[in-house]
């Protein structure tokens, strides 16, 4: 009985793999037929993200769009190594940020080279985890204040609002919880 169940599970996995490959191949065929390069690039990017297939990104001629495609796939697969294919420093930093957020991994935020994106990374993870102590890592005051405000609202904890320096954001934070 166990062998029969195992055989069914293996068959299902193989069938799913074959269907996935067929879907990738079919999507690429559709993209190949697009006449306009922008439409073709958009199609490949959508295909790559939907199927988590990096090879679709490689079909894109425009470097900026190709790198944005790499970012999409890296985020979808939660694979930081894909970000290393990106040359543009801002897009690469954004890629690290999106993978960090997807994985809820603060250590990846620490590796982000862009100051603003690093701060946004910490803030996004703090909000996602509803952990105001992560907001303390944020060095840009406006991002830090918004981080505290969002976490306070999510947790319905007005004491977190006291950490906010901007009076307008602090008042709004306190009012939204009462």
Indicate the low-confidence ranges by residue numbers: 14-19
CA-based shape: elongated
Distance between the termini: 60 Å
Total count of domains: 2
Order of helices and strands: HHHHHHHHHHH
Oligomeric grouping of the chains: single chain
CA-atom Rg in angstroms = 21 Å
Biggest sheet statistics: none
Total helices: the number is 11
- Considering DSSP H and I runs of 4 or more, what fraction of the residues is helical? over 70%
Structural class: mainly alpha
Strand content: under 5%
Number of strands: 0
- What's the mean pLDDT score? 87
Report on this structure.
This protein has eleven helices and no strands. With 178 residues, the chain is mainly α. It folds into two domains: 80 residues; 64 residues, no CATH class. About 3% of the residues have low confidence.
Task: Give short descriptive properties of this protein.
178 residues, 75% helix, mainly alpha, single chain, 11 helices, 2 domains, 0% strand
Question: What order do the helices and strands come in, and which of them pair?
Answer:
Blueprint: H1 2-32, H2 37-51, H3 54-57, H4 63-77, H5 80-83, H6 89-103, H7 106-110, H8 115-129, H9 132-135, H10 141-155, H11 167-177
Task: Please sum up the structure shown.
With 178 residues, the chain is mainly α. Helix content is 75%, strand content 0%. The chain has helices at 2-32, 37-51, 54-57, 63-77, 80-83, 89-103, 106-110, 115-129, 132-135, 141-155, 167-177.
